[in-house]
Specification:
With 240 residues, the chain is an alpha/beta fold. It is 43% helix and 21% strand. The protein has one domain: Vaccinia Virus protein VP39 (Rossmann fold, 3-Layer(aba) Sandwich), CATH 3.40.50. The chain contains eight helices and seven strands. It has a seven-stranded mixed sheet with strand order 3-2-1-4-5-7-6, with helices on both faces. The two termini are 30 Å apart. Bound molecules: S-adenosylmethionine. S-adenosylmethionine (SAM) binds next to helix 1, helix 3 and strand 2.
Length: 240
């Protein structure tokens, strides 16, 4: 692993942290409060997948947390089977419990690092990853995960990311990074602003929208789309 990543949180650190944060990821109406436009983005993604795949049967939710993305998508569509993947067993328990109330389809919960999973070819109509992939570290890991997702999709299936991002130009990033700090301070207070910045420093290794869209094309996606961007958060995806 590149030395830049050596000081970052381990998989076990991330598992333990998210085990403690289940409550703050369990409210559909407020979404993830520290992620800009999280409710809007989840509703856009739910609208897009239900319009693209009205007869979809199988959804994969990577880094599902307490299930907010799956719940939004499941309630916008008819019966679905949902595969949930997360490092945190507490998040998975909550996601399963909440989803059982809204779907009759099968729920498979997998407590695993997404980097260690290999799905069968053509398993899913749609894959979503809500603010989870910024925990990937090396370019090789990003490539392997995106390739695995591409392979796991049925023909015509789609992959949607909502995430913390960086920018390819550091001066551009600097401005939007500061704007996000102001947004946190104004909406959630100075203490949360400082906590989020500390967490990002210790834990996160985001990539730019450009990097991820190029990678989608490299692994085979035939077309890519940007759904939303505000400061250092964006939503985008690819169609197989
Ligand atoms: C910020 S939360 C977002 C939860 C949910 N997607 C949402 O938007 O409400 C990120 C989740 O990703 C999970 N996660 C982080 N790295 C992961 C990895 N390598 N494999 C699987 N899950 C991961 C964490 O445990 C956490 O529950």
């Amino acid at each position: 692993m590149n030395s830049n990543y050596l000081n970052k949180s381990t998989v076990e650190d991330i598992r333990q942290k998210f085990n403690m944060l289940v409550e703050s990821y369990s409210d559909l109406e407020s979404g993830q409060k520290t992620a800009v436009d999280s409710v809007l983005i989840a509703s856009i993604i739910a609208g897009v997948v239900s319009n693209l795949h009205p007869h979809a049967k199988d959804l994969l939710d990577i880094g599902c947390g307490a299930g907010n993305y799956s719940i939004r998508i499941a309630t916008a569509m008819n019966s679905l089977n949902i595969t949930l993947v997360d490092l945190s067993e507490k998040m998975l328990e909550r996601a399963e419990e909440r989803l059982h109330k809204v779907i009759t389809g099968k729920i498979i919960a997998i407590r695993e690092d997404i980097r260690n999973l290999r799905f069968n070819e053509g398993s899913f109509d749609m894959v979503v990853a809500g603010t989870s992939l910024h925990h990937l570290r090396t370019d090789e890991e990003w490539h392997a995960v995106f390739s695995n997702i591409y392979r796991s999709l049925k023909p015509g299936g789609s992959f949607w990311v909502s995430d913390l991002i960086t920018h390819d130009n550091s001066r551009v990033h600097e401005v939007l990074w500061k704007k996000y700090g102001n947004y946190l301070g104004q909406n959630l207070g100075k203490e949360i602003e400082n906590w989020v910045y500390e967490q990002m420093e210790v834990e996160d290794t985001p990539k730019s929208v450009g990097f991820q869209l190029d990678l989608m094309k490299t692994v085979g996606f035939s077309n890519t789309e940007i759904l939303h961007k505000n400061m250092i958060f964006a939503a985008f995806g690819g169609i197989k």
